[in-house]
Amino acid sequence: xxxxxxxxxxxxxxxxxxxxxxxxxxxxxxxxxxxxxxxxxxxxxxxxxxxxxxxxxxxxxxxxxxxxxxxxxxxxxxxxxxxxxxxxxxxxxxxxxxxxxxxxxxxxxxxxxxxxxxxxxxxxxxxxxxxxxxxxxxxxxxxxxxxxxxxxxxxxxxxxxxxxxxxxxxxxxxxxxxxxxxxxxxxxxxxxxxxxxxxxxxxxxxxxxxxxxxxxxxxxxxxxxxxxxxxxxxxxxxxxxxxxxxxxxxxxxxxxxxxxxxxxxxxxxxxxxxxxxxxxxxxxxxxxxxxxxxxxxxxxxxxxxxxxxxxxxxxxxxxxxxxxxxxxxxxxxxxxxxxxxxxxxxxxxxxxxxxxxxxxxxxxxxxxxxxxxxxxxxxxxxxxxxxxxxxxxxxxxxxxxxxxxxxxxxxxxxxxxxxxxxxxxxxxxxxxxxxxxxxxxxxxxxxxxxxxxxxxxxxxxxxxxxxxxxxxxxxxxxxxxxxxxxxxxxxxxxxxxxxxxxxxxxxxxxxxxxxxxxxxxxxxxxxxxxxxxxxxxxxxxxxxxxxxxxxxxxxxxxxxxxxxxxxxxxxxxxxxxxxxxxxxxxxxxxxxxxxxxxxxxxxxxxxxxxxxxxxxxxxxxxxxxxxxxxxxxxxxxxxxxxxxxxxxxxxxxxxxxxxxxxxxxxxxxxxxxxxxx
Length: 677
Hints:
globular, Rossmann fold, single chain, 17 strands, eight-stranded mixed beta sheet, Aminopeptidase, 4 domains, alpha/beta, seven-stranded mixed beta sheet
């Protein structure tokens, strides 16, 4: 019998257990409970050891001490709800600590549960997998399944079969390398003559290799087939980039999972697939592999942890049909019409209210599941119990529709001076407090940790009501509330993308930091955006923003050299401290645009001019070659490949065109200002 800390139970994902003893005396981690139960096969036993006092808070929960610096303030609604559901569940039996447990013996392994034995669903999905790899190009397959349906095993068996058929280069990616252990184990078992070395499996003439998402972007390895496991945990923009680069792909995801959800992925990514690969197909694995249909433990997990929660909305109902909310295509537009005039209302609900209204709780959590791939069971506990987490809802004119949008905001900061100084020097690391700690540590300003923040953790809008300004409306209400409550700043941290940055800009937030390393799961750089609310907060924003503006052009030349040029251009939009342009710079830029100056002779002027052109909002396509070459210093061959141009001469032509257009626009604006004057 293995003994593992709860946070390491994910090491067992993909394996099968006959017995799971979950000792909640060391804390009840909802993610670990769900993941561990997902490893139990049919006929297995869950023994859940619960302290008698865990639901009333008389004894501290060690789990809360691991995730928060204020565990004593947490409520107990999650545990009370869990205990209530456990007592109502017919498949569970309760025993006191001093009671002898009945004898139990693990059931024999049924034939259908033997390795390499496929369910009817799996067998049916093999042919679409084979056609994706060997048939017509650019017809990706989306494979969706609930947990425990053998999705990863199927991918491993399919990869083995394709290698035997002569496919040479199969690459697999996932948010974390441990997520593909089952896939590799099944492929290895199906290929007795193969040689496995870590996350590489070689057979005569072919190989199966794991490549992390960020490495796929950076190195762009060749692949005859790319398998993307747990695709829901990889942001859509990164998947879209992969879809553009690889002709044969399989996207596999868990619809109701323990580490996030795939439902929102299916809803959102289908739109990208319709646009980029209209011939895509979908397969759904419904039959469980490890347990029977309607398994009581699976049903309990779905109910207690809301793994299958969905946001409700009356079919055919439409806000925009009544003229209250205008349809919009630009995520940066924010409605200025008051909420009441739009038929909308905003309210804040606490954990106690949600714990007492199961229908509302399912709707709220369903919105989060549909919109955010990282929503996990532990988020449900925090939603119900964390006193510093505020849940805001946006309701439409019809209360029967349920909430149209939800926003979660966490209060952070307010550290005393001694602790703030220690954090700024890197001597202390606190649980939570992402904004104040990150700002104080990376800027060296202790006062950043002393201010009080509202950190926006999630904004989720119903899939049928997105791009109508609802998220913006809810965010405006939160910002005004935070200002009235005396908070110093409002902020958010997210993967920087051309889709998200305009939304936060429009709400009044500006970038003050960008991580120089890509997140291994998302493949994106984390942006930290801020808006000062109080005088002290505005002063801090000004200092941090000014420093970021000064550093950005230099960062693009080295640690951010591989940053997407579209993201780089957007980061200049709020810049106030830009390199000055001298008269000589203007002349050099004009001479370059007209072909009278070579690149080397005009490089300094182009570097300064490109920074200012990006800040002025010059079209991203015109800026792209200039950012790639002038600011990031990439070589001519790489720039030509990224722009899909034949070579250096064509890149230079694109650069000259961008500068010429920018100079003309600047001249037109200057004349317009003079005319107004």
